[in-house]
Amino acid sequence: MPIDVVVLTGSLRKASYSRRLAHALIGLAPPQIQAEVVEIGELAFYNQDLETESPPAAWTAFRDRLRRADAVLFVTPEYNRSMSAVLKNAVDVGSRPIGKSIWSGKPAAVVSSSPGAIGGFAANHHLRQSLAALGVPTMPMEAYLGGIDKLFEAEQTLVPKTQEFATKIMQSFARWIERNAP
Ligand code: FNR
Question: 75 and 120 in contact (C-beta within 8 Å)?
Answer without folding.
Answer: no
